[in-house]
Amino acid sequence: MSEPLRLTGMTWNHSRAYPPLVAAAQRFEEENPGVTIHWERRSLDDFGHAPLAPLARAYDLLVIDHPMLGDAFGQGILLPLDDLLPQPLLTGLETNSVGPSFGSYRYEGRLWALPLDAAAPVASYRPDLLDRAGLPVPRNWEEVLNLAREGLAVMPAFPADLYLNFLGLYHSLGGMPQTGPDTTLDRAAGTESLLRLRALAALMPGRIYALNPICIYEMLARNDEFAYCPFAFSYSNYARSGFAAHPVHFADLAGIRSGTRMCSVIGGTGLALSAQCRQREVALRFATYVTGETCQRTLYVQAGGQPAHRQAWLDGAANALTHDFFSQTLAAMQRSFVRPRHPGYVAFQQRAGHPIVEFLRAGGNPEAAVDEINRLYLDCGRSTAACR
User: Fold this and answer.
1) Which of 70, 327, 337, 352 is the most core-located residue (most Cβ within 10 A)?
2) Angle at Cα 304 formed by Cα 299 and Cα 307, nearest 5°?
3) What is the Cα–Cα distance from 128 to 275, expressed in whole angstroms?
4) Terminal C-alpha separation, the chain
5) CATH number for domain 5-119+266-326, candidates 3.10.450.50, 3.40.50.12280, 3.40.50.1370, 3.40.190.10
């Protein structure tokens, strides 16, 4: 009897990430006797910021964040997938990408991962608490501020999350995007974004600076203190009956200017193959299985996943399972943009929120805070070591 073909994979530790991969691996093993796939998990913070190189030496399959591609490319630790998979399959995935998910895994003209999970900052709320207060889901920025004045709004202000929500405001206000290591933020749009964030944060408790999106959703789902969050990376799990004490509902972002909804940054995950993967054929078959329409629309979402395939977001059963999470947030996903991916960006993102936190808490000169963000960005673009 031949030895089983064994693959190992690393993902991140949440009900949205680990269980759907385990479920998909189990079914793939059943359909492919002689194959075993073992998944391990690491913290969300490690997923977003820890280096990929040590993992690429130890695992065949890696669930990655697209801003890491610049560093990974320079280290040669991932397999380019465009030469290994048929073009019709890739064209189908790109056509059915949620927002720019597929394109976010292209770097230097090559494709380094398949879209597995899609997310972006969106609005969330407790309908029962808004009904009790006699207030609607905010449609514009002033209504967001009004909810905050009532003590009913909360947002994640952990530095990394704060920076990304700042970036969403910045893009929504017409700021020029950062397209390379030498592209700085526009002072005017950056200053207005900081002033808007400070006006909002001033109406919220100081503990927001220790909160990431998962903390926000746990608070919304467990108690009745807050009814609304204007922007946080989305987690469809909290919209599912039985996942927490109170289902959280999700919505598009509020308008930032007349007739214009706020935009946000694309997140989610991609599934990559380590350059050291020895069982490439079976690894590719699993990767295309778990990112394909059938699995994404059924088993993956049923097991708690937040798929990246557009047909899953349009699926009636998936929406019934999540109080219409997918249909209500798809427009925000389609407006999202891709962060820079050049070497050093991940290290920059770890630090970029700190000048924002300092300004929101202490005030001062918002232009100086924008200048400090630009300084950090330029330093990281010139030398990764400068950001450590």
Assistant:
1) 352
2) 70
3) 50
4) 50
5) 3.40.190.10
